[in-house]
Amino acid sequence: MVSRTIPVDPFDLVLFGATGDLARRKILPSLYRRFLAGQMPEEARVIGAARSELSDDDFRDLVREALKEFVSEKAFDADTVETFVERCSYIAVDAKDDACWQQLKSMIRDDVIKAFYFSVAPSIFGPLAERLRDHGIACENSRLIVEKPFGTDLETARKLNDKLATSFGESQIYRIDHFLGKETVQNLMAVRFANVLFEPLWNERFIDHVQITVAETVGVGGRGSYYDTSGAMRDMVQNHLMQLLCLIAMEPPNQFEADRLRDEKLKVIRALDPIPPEDIVRGQYKASKENPSYAEDAENPDSLTESFIALKVGISNWRWKHTPFYLRTGKRMARRMSEIVVQFKETPHSIFDRDGASRANSLTIRLQPDEGMDLSLTIKEPGPGGMRLVNMPLDMSFADALGPRGGEIPDAYERLIMDVIRGDQTLFMRGDEVEAAWSWTDPVIAGWEERGDKPHPYSQGTSGPEAALMLMHRDGRRWRDLET
């Protein structure tokens, strides 16, 4: 099956922070791939904006270098690259200097969609939004894209929401979480709500527990000083893992529309139980022969910041009251993997010999590196000699089954940027959703800070600290193995 490409309307996208790492690694390559696919129209323009003094030609050289480094050989077409680069221009902009804003206004067309991408530090979101408003650059059909972190706690998130609200309406603000742009995450909604197979079973009567894992093999590296003020709870759980939990746990909206879907996610966040200390495990990776410790990466020998966290989360509503959700995420783990495992309960009574093995079904949703799903079923092992049962997966890789020619499926940023141009907020977080997530997260963080809890040390290349394994073992359950 070949995916369809539906062109969007002409647009001008102003990319603030255009010389930064995220722009080079993700945003510019994503725009190029949409141009290559024919979705980004010929009339579209990309205007890079940053504090560096660059000419248009300098910026175009930067774009070429970024595409050469971060676009696959299959997608890199020299002629198309040149055509795309010609649609890029640049302006040096200082968020606190009014002199350059009239020049930026003259570069943007009035008869196309205007999108402003803030790939910059959150501290200048407010000043940038105010300049766009005060100089008449933004208008009613403008869209504002903001990257995480969206605040560091409830208070800062509220202040940031209030600052943006003075210049843009909520319907114009797109708070981006790239996890929601992944093909598998969106297919999770399709699997749940477009098939009669799962929804009748999607509750505490039939599901034993849910595991959500986001494991990384890299350390904090050059982000050490930032990460040490954040940690895994703020950096990953409050946004990425929270969004995945919401999509698993939410009630079906009455239609697939942005605010109705986000209403249901908000209900899940507000139903989350407070987490007792015994249901939280924090860890910090130790030094290995090849790599420094977290404390060395963070340049803080006394750091109490977690590079790993595991949580047992409960949801107080009728659907999920007795079904625990286990969340874990960490750096320097055994392998890079993001997945959701929905573990169903065993049959009430087995007529077969179980030989000590579990025969419960499970649905595994793989987010990376190989996007897809598999459903574990119990079947008879082929051959004579009795009824020997084995668990076998029904496996679907999206790249193989649904991807375009060449086996590549669109990157999350490709999809999300095009959704912004279309004006579709379905996969973006609403302001009250962000604040509700911080309302749940803040007391957890405050609790371990008041107690002076220290993270458990763990070896690099493992599944995390031993205490995280015990978090599930005490309940008679096991994490999916990361080390095989």
From TrEMBL:
It comes from the Bacteria. It catalyses: D-glucose 6-phosphate + NADP(+) = 6-phospho-D-glucono-1,5-lactone + NADPH + H(+). Residues 189-480 form the Glucose-6-phosphate dehydrogenase C-terminal domain. Substrate binds at residues 178, 182, 216, 235, 331. InterPro entries: G6P_DH (IPR001282), G6P_DH_AS (IPR019796), G6P_DH_C (IPR022675), G6P_DH_NAD-bd (IPR022674), NAD(P)-bd_dom_sf (IPR036291). One of its GO terms (molecular function) is NADP binding. Its EC number is 1.1.1.49. GO terms for cellular component: cytosol. Residues 14-187 form the Glucose-6-phosphate dehydrogenase NAD-binding domain. The keyword NADP applies. GO terms for biological process: glucose metabolic process; pentose-phosphate shunt, oxidative branch. Belongs to the glucose-6-phosphate dehydrogenase family. PANTHER family: GLUCOSE-6-PHOSPHATE 1-DEHYDROGENASE, GLUCOSE-6-PHOSPHATE 1-DEHYDROGENASE G6PD. This is Glucose-6-phosphate 1-dehydrogenase.
